[in-house]
Design goal:
The protein has 361 residues and is α/β, with parallel strands linked by helices. It has 11 helices and 16 strands. It starts with a strand and ends in a 24-residue tail after the last strand.
Amino acid sequence: MRIAVYGASGHTARFVIDELLRRGHTPVAIGRERERMAAALALHGAEIEIRVAGLDAPSSLERALAGTEAVINCAGPFLDTARPLVEAALRAGTHYLDITAEQASALATFERFDAPARERGIAIVPAAGFYGALADLMASAAIGDWRDADAIEVAIALDCWHPTLGTRRTGARNTAPRLVLSGGELLPLQPSTPAPWEFPAPFSMQEIAEVPFTETILMARHLKVREIHNYLNKQSLHDVRDPATPEPLAVDERGRSDQRFVVDVRARNDGEERRITVSGRDIYAITAPIVVEALERISRAREVRAGAFAFGELDDAATMLAAIARAGELALRYGRNSSVKLNPLVPLSATPAGSKSIGGH
């Protein structure tokens, strides 16, 4: 397949292009500056077509998408890039995927473009990256045969978060209130007190804070659940907020950093808990097999997928998760507990007496 990659000179786009090449696809690089893209694309060791287009020139975007089956938007802030690129994809009849962690962007994409995408016969998949898609897929697999769930908790720990320039720009741009799902409704995040969470080794006990990303938006769209809460360990928050923290440093031939992560998802329903954990390396690099897997599932579907979709509803969640784990060299673990009696918002770790849960319960 010929796949357009917008923001092709960016850090994450490098991994996306490599993954497309590895799977036998033909990437088409799109961006505003030809020279910058040419310099970045020289690292791939393959001849890649470059097309110049800007968000402020809709006709150039449409021309740049001509002859491609899908476009992967790797350029944040997505609050600025998603809408014009989705509109161009609709005109070109091209599937659209992005990797946003911005809740407001994903929510707006669902609300504005689901109906137009169904009319045009294309699929739109926002937040198909580490933040957003991975936890949504894990939660979907955990819920499995349940019709609904009482609560889903997502806890993410990074041993360090060395942000890219794009991450910093997005953070400065993204001032929208963060949302949680409470009582079945998306509501603004309320102040809370940090609490401990027992992660698998080597992270073990970590102090976490409630920081919702796009997984909340994705899960709320297609899963029947009353409470969804997202947590991030305090160390990674300190790193990403510190202006002195350097950008990721490549330590292998694929350009990956040595950063490690774990995602711990716990679904609870009627006294039963199902838990899935995924651990791996480099949150930017792992985005590539996630978004390309979604692309291939859309292309292989027996029926045309038309509309705006959360990642976890594209295909069988457990099968997709296993495929991404293989492609991304992830460690994947399942577990369950049939005698959960705790408040669904209190971590199952040994919370010290007198401490306050993040949900304020």
